[in-house]
TrEMBL record:
EC numbers on record: 1.13.12.-
GO molecular function, one term: monooxygenase activity
Classification via Gene3D superfamilies: Aldolase class I (3.20.20.70)
Superkingdom in the source lineage: Bacteria
Protein's recorded name: Nitronate monooxygenase family protein
Keyword Oxidoreductase in annotation: yes
Length: 323
């Protein structure tokens, strides 16, 4: 498959692994890249910039294919040393960075001077256009179906992807709600030139999380995710479990809630513990509505080859219908 995304990123298939906290480790990134997509190491999964450098080298020992680093810029009172994570990524020779969260404007000049391609993930057309003006190389547009933070506009991919495609001139990646070749074909028809998947890659053999979590993803249907932080204007989509139920119940109390009221439930360390222990109800498990389309736990290689074949089949079917 050949699109502007495959050419820009130097990959065989226009399929990108989401930059997932606690999941975007060397095993995950290398498996996706070896399968023909673009694997991403998640910078903030690593406790320090030096630890990220070591994880990049570990990834490089597992693949000779292109891979990138995700750097999510979070709105926090005590921000991590983002500039140091960027410097380590550049020094390590990584040539692709996915940014998310706040605007990457402050990092673009340094990254591009080092020959680094920047893919910025955003949840609205206006933010996509802003990032394009700032000089990023590609946009990953994230629909309301996605895991993580879908923004506050609540626009699904069926509208958001073509809305972005008709005005954004740089290559566009569709993200959120994609798990198979049918979704990939739809994204391409809607105007994207590649797809990004997070939740689907969590349910693969190589994903570095407990099998009980993978089985929970397989067993869930499309109604078994939940929106948290709605009242805090920082909406997040997670798998529905005992923790998410409690968070939502606190948010719905008379008078509302503050972040401090739920901090003990949503702490990152608690979510990491759930992924590693397999205790589904012990922490937040971030997942998108696409859980309703996940039926198995393949290798990344089998998943990508199956997706590409199904995508080509669906596109050919559409062509025959109107041929």
């Amino acid at each position: 498959m050949k699109t502007r995304i495959t050419e820009l990123l130097g990959i065989r298939y226009p399929i990108v692994q989401g930059g997932m906290q606690w999941v975007g480790r060397a095993e995950m990134a290398a498996a996706v890249s070896n399968a023909g997509g673009l694997g991403l190491v998640t910078a903030l999964t690593q406790p320090t910039p030096d630890a990220l450098a070591a994880e990049i080298e570990r990834t490089r020992s597992m693949t000779d294919q292109p891979f990138g680093v995700n750097l999510t810029i979070l709105p926090t009172a005590s921000p991590p040393p983002y500039a140091e994570y960027l410097d380590v990524t550049i020094k390590s020779g990584v040539k692709i960075i996915e940014t998310a969260g706040r605007s990457p404007k402050d990092f673009i000049e340094k990254a591009k001077a080092a020959g680094v391609r920047i893919v910025h993930k955003c949840t609205s057309v206006r933010h996509a256009l802003s990032a394009e003006r700032d000089g990023v190389d590609a946009i990953s547009i994230d629909g309301f179906e996605c895991a993580g933070h879908p923004g506050e506009d609540d626009v699904g991919g069926l509208v958001l992807i073509p809305a972005a495609a008709r005005v954004v001139k740089i290559p566009l990646i569709a993200s959120g709600g994609i798990a198979d070749g049918r979704g990939m074909a739809a994204a391409l028809v809607l105007g994207a030139e590649g797809v990004n998947m997070g939740t689907r890659f969590c349910a693969t053999v190589e994903a570095p999380i407990h099998d009980h979590i993978k089985q929970a993803l397989v067993g869930a249907n499309e109604r078994q995710t939940q929106l948290i932080f709605r009242t805090l204007r920082n909406t997040g989509r997670v798998m529905k479990n005992a923790i998410s139920d409690e968070v939502v119940a606190i948010e719905r109390r008379p008078g509302g809630a503050q972040y401090e009221d739920v901090r003990h439930l949503v702490a990152g360390a608690r979510g990491r513990g759930a992924l590693e222990s397999g205790e589904v109800d012990s922490g937040l498990v971030w997942a998108g509505q696409v859980v309703g389309l996940i039926d198995d736990i393949p290798t990344c290689k089998d998943l990508l080859e199956r997706m590409v074949a199904e995508c080509q089949e669906r596109l050919a079917y559409g062509s025959r219908c109107f041929g």
